[in-house]
Specification:
Length: 346
């Protein structure tokens, strides 16, 4: 595909995600179906609650990261620079958008590299698509280039079959993906995370991915941004069936978490995470970390760096209130708090 076409597509994605109607309209994350078990004799001092944790050996201050979004254009460079300031201030990982464009067009390199120059301490997470991994003749070399570009401490491989299907210029052939993933996981030093982009990862899919050696699953489930909606708006398509396609985020977290008995991996809850309640419920369902994309982008556009930092801090103030009311003073304890499903509540 021509380099200009990739740049145009990235521009469309940014514009539509900032101003378009791109959320699922019927399918929800499912978090609204759960309530926390209130714990009346709480002895938690809200001021002493510890939210810190770790991300593949790196200490972080909140169980949260900014999801993969952008790179490859001048506007993306400014956005990445600001996201880097937000992440550095909060000491949380920052995930980059697909680095494919920088590999194909050297002029775009700095729109990614900028994050490393601004945020010197936080873990930067690289990103590449399943289609590129599948067709690579030398996947270890591909990953090493991505890692070196930003000194990445983990790499996300995004699995976006629905998006590729709806995108007029989409690449729908992922054959060879799992073989190449396995090869890469053996050869490179940084952990690989498999991630969807809004359709979710099932327990069956997660098991297959973990068998290749990936060390993280970011479910990126349904209920937030619908990439079928984004691509349908881009190409003016009328068939809206696939707009609602996907597995709800809460379902993915709950079921993929069952694999913790068999595999050691980091479970990331994302897809429609829009407030502190979603974050706390994700953790109580089993997520080690949570992440959010479009809501952060929209806030950055509206209220810039300081407003975005304030938003994330306010989400974690809500998490602390929930921890106080459920008797949990650490993320480890929040993970054990019972969630009551709607039908059992009455
Ligand atoms: C503008 C924009 C660009 C994105 N680009 C990428 C990408 O390059 N790689 C990727 O893995 N995910 C990408 N995503 C998907 C997000 O990381 C996320 O998985 C998805 O939007 C669902 O999360 P949300 O409901 O919080 O937006 C992008 C999202 C947005 C909003």
């Amino acid at each position: 595909m021509s380099k200009n076409k990739i740049a145009d597509r990235k521009k469309d994605h940014l514009e539509l995600c900032i101003s378009g109607k791109v959320e699922f309209s019927e399918r929800t994350t499912g978090f609204e179906k759960y309530s926390f078990e209130h714990y009346a004799p709480t002895e938690i001092d809200i001021k002493k609650i510890d939210l810190s944790g770790e991300f593949y050996g790196n200490k972080i201050d909140f169980p949260f990261m900014i999801s993969s979004m952008t790179g490859g254009t001048k506007k993306a460079e400014r956005i990445n620079e600001k996201l880097a300031v937000v992440s550095e201030e909060l000491n949380i990982p920052l995930c980059l958008g697909s680095q494919r464009h920088a590999l194909e067009e050297k002029n775009n390199y700095y729109s990614y590299r900028v994050v490393k120059d601004v945020a010197k301490n936080i873990p930067i997470v690289g990103n590449i698509g399943a289609a590129q991994v599948a067709k690579s003749k030398d996947p270890a070399d591909l990953f090493n280039k991505i890692i070196n570009m930003v000194n990445a401490r983990a790499i996300i491989v995004h699995l976006n079959p629905l998006q590729e299907l709806i995108q007029p210029e989409g690449e729908t052939d992922f054959s060879g993906l799992m073989k190449n993933l396995e090869l890469v996981c053996k050869k490179i030093d940084v952990p690989v995370i498999a991630k969807e982009v809004g359709s979710g990862i099932s327990k069956t899919a997660a098991r297959k991915l973990l068998e290749t050696g990936v060390r993280g699953i970011d479910v990126a489930g349904a209920g937030g941004t619908s990439w079928a909606a984004v691509e349908q708006l881009r190409s003016n398509q009328k068939d809206l069936y696939f707009r609602e396609w996907g597995l709800s985020t809460s379902y993915c977290i709950r079921t993929v978490n069952e694999l913790k008995k068999e595999y050691s991996f980091t479970l990331i809850g994302s897809g429609g995470i829009n407030n502190g309640i979603d974050i706390a419920k994700s953790i109580a369902l089993g997520a080690d970390l949570t992440a959010s994309a479009r809501t952060i982008l929209v806030e950055l556009m509206k209220k810039d760096v300081d407003g975005t930092i304030d938003l994330i801090k306010s989400w974690f103030m809500t998490v602390k209130k929930i921890m106080y009311l459920t008797g949990s003073d650490s993320i480890k304890k929040l993970k054990k708090v019972p969630l009551i499903r709607e039908k059992e509540m009455y």
